[in-house]
Amino acid sequence: MAPTVAEQRNEIRVAVGRYKRKVSSGFTKEALAAICDSLDADVEIDVLPKKGVMRAAIAEEVEGVDGSRDQGSAFRKAELTAITAAVSSD
User: What superkingdom does the record give (predicted)?
Assistant: First the structure.
C-alpha cells in the first residue's frame, strides 16, 4: 500500500534531521529550512524566510515539484514523493 501524505512528510522530516510527528501536519518553517539545507537550495536560512520562498526554492531543486503553482499551498502527494526521493538520496 502506498504511503500516506503524513507518512511521506514524516519520512522527509527524518531524512533531513527533524523529528516525526504523531499527527498529520504540514511542514513548519524549520522543517522547510532543513529540507532546503539538505537540498543545498539557494535560500538564506539564517533568518527564516516565508514558507512560500522556501517552497519555491525546493521546487527549483527537485524535479517533479511544480514551481509554477501557488507556493502558499502545501506540497501535493506526488511532489512529496519526489522530495522524499531527493532528500533520501543525499
Answer: Archaea
